[in-house]
Design goal:
By secondary structure, this protein is α+β, with helices and mostly antiparallel strands. It contains 8 helices and 27 strands.
Length: 434
């Protein structure tokens, strides 16, 4: 999607720790959230200090497990609900590396807005952390639709949101707003906007185990005529809150987004779908890739069977993203459909497997015995070819480790060209001695 920016701004973290305490809006659990400084490159990470081993959950799209009325993250049996308010405050202040300790399953809702978290982070003192911030730059327009939520994404020098909502209520109706998401803009225009809900939905939502901790003290509650128990901070507080929720969900990209997002009826489900589409289409800067020299150091394959050009992301040793550039000079095009060149499906799967091999070899390198091992693939399941791959295409392979044992691992992979799925597969690999 165009050229990558030449440089990125410095990463930012916190100078010291700060905390807030209260009840969770959905779980009703009383919890304490503490923001800590983190080393450059850590990213945004939650840590459940109330659970054995204090498991960590990266604030990434790959950790999303729930999107009903809130965004839920999970990893290794640990779960955190309603992360969007905390993440919006962090992203709004352009923070890149923060460790977030949480003493329960959900951050406190406090007054229902993002402002208490902004105040806590400002109290902790944003500072430069060293290294370059990850930036995702949109260079060409595209659209995303998920249910009623629709998004148009285009280039912009920084994150700008134009949001429209439409609710059949006399105080809401159709509301629109545009916001520049800078630290100053977020604090002034969006941070104070509270979450909202309707009295007629309360019983049904509580039967689902939702809004257990909600009240007129931590949300804008609406009956048929107006607001119950409080007054609005802005007449359009509703669209401002939806815009800030979008900031929080887009923080799961793991970097700073440079784009103009036009959102119509955004939802958490739609926001996550939008994030996934952006991650596959935006130009990336600031995250060191493994170039072909590193790939050659890790994989035993050589011409004409080396089918990986670059690794652009390795996340927590569990997820990897690799690139294969398909050119007319590939040797297999001489004999595979001459005059109508199509990449053989078996080689597309081989390229995907090689990306997965890089991930597994990374685990071996950590143990110090990678030079003595090689990765063999044992089985392939649920293979689906969605569309042909032709010269000029760039395949983006995303693989996730779904089971990892000492000698054998299972991975799930998807290949994309221009954001469209071209192949899906599950594969089992075994590490053996050379």
């Amino acid at each position: 999607m165009g050229s990558t920016p030449k440089s990125s701004p410095p990463r930012r973290t916190l100078a010291r720790s700060a905390a807030r305490e209260g009840i969770g809006i959905h779980t009703g659990a009383r919890t304490r959230v503490t923001f800590h400084p983190a080393e450059s490159g850590t990213g945004i990470v939650f840590r459940r200090t109330d659970l054995d081993g204090a498991p960590c959950i990266p604030a990434r799209l790959s950790s999303v497990t729930g999107v009903e009325r809130r965004t839920t993250l999970a990893r290794d049996g640990a779960e955190i609900h309603t992360v969007e308010h905390v993440l919006a405050a962090i992203a709004g202040l352009l923070l890149d590396d923060v460790l977030i300790d949480l003493t329960g399953p959900e951050p406190p809702v406090l007054d229902g807005s993002f402002q208490p978290f902004v105040e806590a982070l400002e109290e902790a003192g944003p500072v430069e952390a060293g290294g370059e911030a990850v930036q995702l730059t949109v260079t060409e327009p595209f659209t995303v639709t998920e249910g009623e939520a629709r998004y148009l994404v285009g280039p912009a020098p920084h994150l700008r949101l134009s949001v429209m909502i439409d609710f059949p209520h006399p105080l809401i109706g159709r509301q629109m707003g545009s916001y520049d998401v800078t630290p100053e803009g977020f604090a002034a225009e969006l941070a104070g906007a509270r979450t909202f809900g309707f009295m007629h939905e309360v019983e049904a939502l509580r039967k689902k185990g939702l809004i257990v901790g909600a009240s007129v003290e931590n949300a804008v509650v609406l009956d048929e005529k107006g607001v119950v128990g409080s007054t609005l901070r802005w007449p359009d507080e509703f669209v401002r809150h939806k815009a800030a929720d979008l900031v929080g969900d887009l923080a799961l990209l793991g970097g700073r987004l440079r784009a103009h997002v036009v959102a119509e009826k955004p939802s958490h489900r739609g926001n996550v779908a939008l994030g996934n589409a952006i991650s596959r289409r935006a130009a990336l800067a600031g995250r060191p890739p493994l170039d072909i020299r590193h790939v050659l150091d890790v994989l035993p394959h050589r011409y004409p069977m080396l089918l990986v050009d670059r690794i652009i992301e390795i996340e927590d040793g569990r997820r990897i993203v690799g690139i294969k550039n398909v050119t007319i000079n590939e040797p297999f095009f001489q004999g595979h459909f001459p005059g109508h060149p199509v990449m053989p499906g078996v080689l597309i799967i081989e390229a995907m497997a090689q990306v997965g091999g890089v991930l597994l070899m990374g685990h071996l390198q950590e143990s110090g015995n990678a030079d003595e091992k090689v990765v063999y693939f044992m089985s392939l399941d649920n293979i689906k070819f969605r569309r042909p791959v032709i010269p000029g295409d760039q395949i983006r392979f995303e693989l996730e480790l779904i089971q990892h044992k000492e000698r054998a691992s299972r991975m799930r992979g998807v290949g994309y060209v221009d954001g469209h799925v071209v192949v899906e597969a599950e594969m089992m690999a075994r590490v053996v001695d050379k």
